[in-house]
Every structure is written in C-alpha cells, then in structure tokens.
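ARCHIVE CARD
SHELF: 3
SLOT: left
DATA:
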Amino acid sequence: MDKLDDMASVSEFDPIAGNIPATKVEITVSCRNLLDKDTFSKSDPLCVLYIQGVETKQWREVRKENRFNQSSPDEHSILASALKRDSPLSVALQCVSDPALCVHQDFLGQTFCTLGEIVGSPSSRLEKPLSGIPGKKCGTVILSAEELGNCRDYATMQFCANKLDKKDFFGKSDPFMVFYRSNEDGTFTICHKTEVVKNTLNPVWQAFAIPVRALCNGDYDRTIKVEVYDWDRDGSHDFIGEFTTSYRELARGQSQFNVYEVINQKKKIKKKKYSNSGTVTLLSFTVESEYTFLDYIKGGTQINFTVAIDFTASNGNPSQSTSLHYMNPYQMNAYAMALKAVGEIIQDYDSDKMFPALGFGAKLPPDGRVSHEFPLNGNTENPYCNGIEGILEAYHQSLKTVQLYGPTNFAPVVNHVARYAAAVQDGSQYFILLIITDGVISDMAQTKEAIVSAAKLPMSIIIVGVGQAEFDAMVELDGDDIRISSRGKLAERDIVQFVPFRDYMDRTGNHVLSMARLAKDVLAEIPEQFISYMKTRGIKPNPSPPPYTPPSHTLHTQI
C-alpha cells in the first residue's frame, strides 16, 4: 500500500485580514474505496481543497495535492490553510492522466462541509460519502483538523539503511520510507515520503527538509512512525518493516541512539529466530528557523514598487466613455482601481513612498516617438511619484499629453526594473513590478527571455489584465502550471502572478470589497516568491532593531 504526502505551506502574509479571526489548520484527507480509473494500476488521485468566498459565493481553489497509485483505504493528503470556523469547504478528487503535470482526466467525487463541522466532530474527525457520479458509489472521505503550532523551525535530515529484506523475485528491493506524525486521537498522518532507491538492500536516501510542525507540531516527544517499503510499479508496494522515534531523539543527531531496527511484526510472530528486517541509521540532522516575509521586512529589507501602465490604442480614445482609460468624474476607471487596490497595500512596506511610474505603447511629444518605457511624470531623470496619489496624478496628466499607439511590449519595462534589481542582490532590497494592460502581448519571445533572466534577481512581477480581451499569453507567463522557459532555459523561480480584473467586478457595485479581493489574490504569491529568492541565496533576515524607548528623566527634588 502506497502512502504518500507532502506538507502544504501556510502564508504568513494576509494583506486584508478580516474582522473574524482565521485559524491556521492542517486538514487531513483520508480516502477509502475510491473508484479505480486506471486499467493496470490503482487510481492516481488529485485532491483539491476549495473555499467559498463570503461576498461572492464563488469557490476558490486554495490547495492541491496529488498522490499516485492510491485507491486503497487510509491514504492521506494534508492541506494547510488559514480558515474561519464557518468557512464552507469542498474537497474534490480527480484521477490524473499525467501525475507529473497534474493533468485532469476523470472526476472521482466530491463532498462539502465547513471547518466547524470537522472540528465539532468526535476527535475532530468527520467521515462523509463522496458523491457526484450518478449511479456510482464513489467511496468515502475522512476529514480531520488540527490547529497548527507556532513552531517555525525546519529540520534537515538524511538516512541510510543496511541489510533490508529482499522483496523482488528477480532483483533486490527498491526501498523508500514513509514518515508519519501521531495525532492527538492516536491515529497517524503522513508527513513525508523519501524517494525510491532502486535495486539495493543498503540504500542511502537524499537529505530532505521538513517543517518541525509537520513532524510533531511542536511537541518534541510526540511519536514519529517510519515505515519502510519496497516499491512496485503497480502501486502494491511491499511492506518491509517499521520503527518509531521522536523529534527529541532525532535531534541528538548521528549516534548509537539513532540506529533503528526495522521490525515486521507479522514476521516476528511467525519466525522464532526473527531478529529484524534490517536497520535504518540517521546520518545527519540539522535545524534552521523558517523565516517569514515579515521577518525580512522587520530586519530592514526594503520593498521597491514600480508600476507600468499600458498606453496602447486598443484601450480606446480616453475622451470616450467606452475607453478603458476614460476619466469618469464620478468613478475611477479599471486602471486606476487596480493601481490603487494593489499599490495601497504595497506602499505600506516602502519607507519613502516614492515610486517609479512608467508607461508603454504611446507616442510622446513633441516628435511622436513611440516609447515602451517612458516616465508618467515626464521626467526621465527622476521618474518617481509621491505615493499612490502621485502616480494617479501623473497617470491622468499623461493621458492629456501622449497619444495612445502600440504595440504591447512588456520586455522594456521588465528589463528596466531588472537593471535596478541586478545592482542589489544582497537581500537588502526586493523589487515588485505591477503591469496593468488591456491586450495581447506583442513581444512574447522577448518578454519570456526577460522574465527568465529576472527570475534570478530579487524581483516579482504582477500583471493585471483589464478589459474583455483573451489573456491566454498572460496565463502562460504566470507559470503556475508550467514553468516559463526561453531558448530551452527554465526560469529559476516563478516570479509572475496574473489576474484578470474582470473577475473582481462586484455585481452589487461594492468596489471596496472587489478591490480588497483583488489586492489579496494579486499579492498572495509575493511572500512565497520573496522567500524563495532569499532561501536560494542563503540570505537570512537581519535582527529586528530594538523597540524605541524614550530617555528616562531623573526627578530632582529640592530640600
């Protein structure tokens, strides 16, 4: 039986936290008796967690986990998120045709509940039938929840094994290990699976890093169970044996205390002379703190925000009400609303509130030269605007002086910000470029090349698409499903986040809620992108400066 799992990360960055406090929880999903969709092996289920929006009632995907060859009972997927107790949840399962790419193929069923239902069930464990396929029993799903501890350490460890049992008829074994954390109700939840080492009884597995809260949720004496398997192609992996340990024991590092006998209880009962099914040895163990976005900000890292606005003719004549750049005296246009929603959050992390603001795709006075990188304030020496209001003022002024033209080229503004980011790669500064555009990109190859180069630098790119155009190219640049590449070279990190503005137009006309949702979704990936840069460069945050204390005054008394 194959039992696989990965930990889902929980973002520390919630730019528009609501009034009702949200709880960070791990939701464990156990599937039993799933439908088999694969002909020669078990199903390859993809588990997706959705949460329903409060004001829009739309379902939004918050976490996805794929598990290969699992239709048997007790298969787990851990999904971590920040949720409110009354948050409506949906868990959907699909069989995937290509597990590596998570390409959807067959729907396996779904169920609906709230976090409160899970927490309120005995031992916070809720069992519900899967449904959604007429005339079919889709199996059951068991949902349990545990509040996440505040432990932010990461443990990195490496193991080897010696003289494991031989399980394959024509060869040795293909061993891998599965780690389980014990739960408060006595059950176990998968928290890590090693890679498979082929054709050996003495494997050395690669070192792996795991959050300490995944192993024990901050309880250093909580039991950790480790099972050793021989991998089989059809998913019916052979059980070799198991052992137990704890975080406190592992933290001793390489020693005689961390050599474990792998025991197969069935063999032990049957064979009088049974000793063990091999041994597993801890080779190394180190612990580092998991730093958050706010740790770096508190330590002095500066966020540099740049905005680039699309001035191509496809936006329409700004003097006409049909134009996306139309200046309605009673209501902001889509460009202004997107800029204000995102910019007002980011500006809080910028100490001087001075932001470069660029335009692209326009003819400039006096000679009609087409530019894809011009300052909105008209000052090439100093393109900085004072706060978001300063950018809006420069944007309105530019609409009166430049002629909308084309084409829609992104590469110049991406390279513009990249030049500044390339000069400061020590973690003291991070650059965010907001591109607001209406149309299909004209320089796709050049933009891809610019993004692949920029992925090595301390910068992120947010693209907000306004209007009703098709934004397929923007989705490709986003790189969430397939990492962007140029000339056969993959981007080192995913640094692009794209959202279509039309998805955030509130039907009730409540633009405050719409813009709050836009800001939250647009900025959702920034902390992860920021942390990924710092981690790959080995940059740690500086200590926070001590809080200011006013000088003490001595009270003088006269006798």
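SLOT: right
DATA:
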Amino acid sequence: TDAEVSTRKKTFAEVQTERLDQAERTVLIKCPSRLNEKKLLQYLSSHGNVKSHFFFENRGISALIEFSDKSSIASLQDAVGIPSTSEHHVVPFKSRLFTFTLKNPVSQNVEGTPLHLSPQCHIPVKDLIEKLCLADSISSQMYILLNEYQLTEENIKLRFLACSLVRDFARAYFPDSTVKPFGSSVNTFGKLGSDVDMFLDFRDTGKHATKMKKGPFEMEYQMKRLPSERLATQRILSVIGDCLDNFGPGCVNVQKILNARCPLVKFAHQPTGFQCDLSVSNSIAIRSSELLYIYGCLDSRVRALVFTIRCWARVHGLTNSAPGTWITNFSLTMMVMFFLQRRSPPIIPTLDQLKELADEKDKHIIGGYDCSFVSDLRKIKPTKNTETLDVLLGEFFEYFGNFDFRKNSINLRKGKEVNKPESSPLYIWNPFEQDLNISKNVNQPQLEKFVAMARESAWILQKEDKTQQIINKEPWGLAALLIPVGKSNSSKMKNRMKGIGSETIRSLLDSLKLNNANSQQKAVGK
C-alpha cells in the first residue's frame, strides 16, 4: 500500500521521534469487565479528541488511549481520584495508569458489540505449523510466519508507552532526560512477547550548544564529579531502580544488576505486561538498532528470512532465552545479513558501502570507533537480485552447513569471509567495535550442532516431494523444518537419517549444489 511505502521511507530517527511523541499523549486504563466501548470513548472525548485506541487482555481488559493533545491527559488526571483502601496505604505518585470501574454496574447493561482485543503474543509453534501446511510455497510459508511473529502496531505503541512511563520517573531527578527503546523493539526484527530494552538518555538535543556560543562567558553547571562514567551510571541506575521498586505502579521483581559489563535494572512492568531492561545510554547499541532497521526496510525478504531462521533455531534448541554458550538471536541475525550480502547480486549492501553513502549529518564517531552510515533509505539503490525465499532458505542452510568456521570469520563491514583474528569457534565481527567478536560466547559443541542442523535442513528441503507430502497430509517445506528432532510424526524421517554419515550428506549436498548452481544461472538469465 501507499501508506506502507511512505512509512517505509522514514528514517530511523524520524520514526523514533514520532513514536516517543505519540507515547507522551497516551494513557493506559484498566477497564471494568463489562464495558461499553462507545460509552468509554464518549466519556474520554470530554477531555479532548481521542486519536486512536485499542483494547488488550492483561489480567483483565486494558485500553491504550492516545489523545491528539497532551493537555487532555492533565484534564483527565484532574478528574481522577486517589484510591481509597482500608487495608493498604498508597504511594501518592500520579502516573498515566488509571483504573476505571462502573459506578452502578447493574443499570449500565452492556449492549453493543464485544470488544476487539489486540493479541500481544504470537501463536504456539504447533498452531503455526498447521497454518504453514495450508500455504502454496515456502515463500508464502515464510511470510505467514513473519506475520504471526512480528510486532504489531499496537504492541509497538505499548512498548513506547512503557518507556514513556519510566521516563516520568527519571524526570523527577533529571528533567531533560528521555527513555528510549533500542534493540528488537525498534530494529524491525522484534517478535511478539520479547523483552523491552530501554535506555536512559541525558543528551541535551543540539539546541543547547548554539546558545552557549553567545555572551562573553564560558558557562557551565556545577555538577557532582565521580571518578568514572561507570560509577555515575551505576549510581543513577541504582536510584532509579529503587524509585521504580518503591513508587512505580505495577513495577515488580526489580533487580539491579550493576556489576554487569553493561549495568542494568531488570523489572516486570505489569500494566503493559512487558519484561523490561533499563540501562544508561549506549550509543553503539543504538547504531546497531538503526543499522538493522535499514537492512529490514530495504527488502521484504530480509525480515522474512531472519524470522524464519530464528524460529528454526529456537525449535531445535540452537538458541535459548537464558545466557550461555549457544548462539544469540543477534549473532544469528548478523549471519543472515552476511549471507544476504554474499548473494550474487547482493541483496543488501555492506556496512562499508553504507558508510560511503553517508553525508555530514550521518557522521558518528563513538569512543574512537567510526559508526557512520547513511540514514536516508532513498539513497540506497534497490537490489537487482530476484531470488525467491524458497531458494534463499535452502541456500542459507547450504552456505553455513559448508562454511569453513575453522579458518574464516564473518565480517559485515566488508561483506567478505576474512581470516579469524583469534581462535573462537564462531567469529562474527562487531560491526562497530571492530575489535570485538559478538559471538565469543559460542563454544565448539554448539557450533557443531548448528552446522549439523543446517545440513540436515538443507537435505530435507532438497529431498522433499511437496505434492506427495501434501497428499499424505504430512508437514512440508518450512513446516517440516520446524518439527523438533525426535518429534517427527513420520518414522520414515528417522530411518532416512539412520546410517547416513555427515560425509554422505556432504557429498549429496555437493552434487545438489552443482545442479542448483546450473538451474540458478538459468533463473537469473531469464
């Protein structure tokens, strides 16, 4: 749609600013169980125009209400009372979280249509597999998966609102501060149900610097000085963490993890239902979010492939939500990006190419690292590559099933396999901090498990007789790849796998590769 095209072209910063602004005009209401939507909106409209709203299930029904004007919130707050409870004493912090109950529930008989509730989590894998079997190609299977798992418009609004509510606390101490989401909430690769990573930002926007030039004096604030930035970060997070813990409505299980490489406060935000991680401004993490945002916007195949590979990895236990020696989703995403840079012609540009396109305002040097790349999507030429997702999925498994991990590392700046600078089993260069390996945590057994699963998946896709499987009502294509090992309904699969050494698979793949290369040449030549 045209609307989608126009949203697609916005820069990362524009989208962020727009969403943060939207969140400031938003309130969250815990609703009575028998609710007449029309009456609620009618009442709220007496405080100002309601620009958008939706309902969702979260231990009862909640409504997110976005007003056109921020002043409507003050007007509503004036009308809201402090809870009267005999058994508790309340902390009198007035937020943008309200509870509405009906004054005389009996008389207000509920007429009208039932509420439409926006889902805030994705369907279970077994339900997904059933849906995938109804598709007509692997490509459409991958888009179905993407549609089921990706963040919805409503869920994104809720994420920004959670940040905005935390910001209200931070502003009690630091009036200029903002709280912004980073990582999967904003990089177009977030899936429903994922945590919200947020950071506290004290950077005064540029308008301040110009004022300082005027007048005969150098002027600066007197501020408390501490021996290191890390200590300042720890103290700030410690206080904000206590603040959320003591006064934050619906902030529970607050944990301060201040000795981590990146100090943070973890907490559950019950009103929005999110698990949140709050840290202090990390410019490099934001550049990574923006880089992925650009890649995600350039071509629809990018997100479809990333979501598919991540789901596949999770089903087979290659990734895990707990930290450990397995591959992280971030590393996996970077491997997909690298694979897409290596296609011929490439589907996405290398980071060095994006840096070439950068102009003055895109220049970012952070801690001595050059993190510059173009922000305007229109300056990036669309790819000439027309490979289908059916082809790309199989090729991804082939590529990494046969990748020389002993010798080579993955470098997204150059889009080339380069010699490993040190002996970690899996070496993926941090795109910005060039001396770091983002997959340093991965050990040899985990990497071998990944390679074995990639080979097996390539093999399943190659062997497959789709028509036969559809006739036999067996899962096919992507659905077949998402059945955990040992859970396969057909014992045929196990028998096929018995006695096939990895050498046999490799020679099989090699012969398939030749055929595939030829047929691909034809496809591209068309």
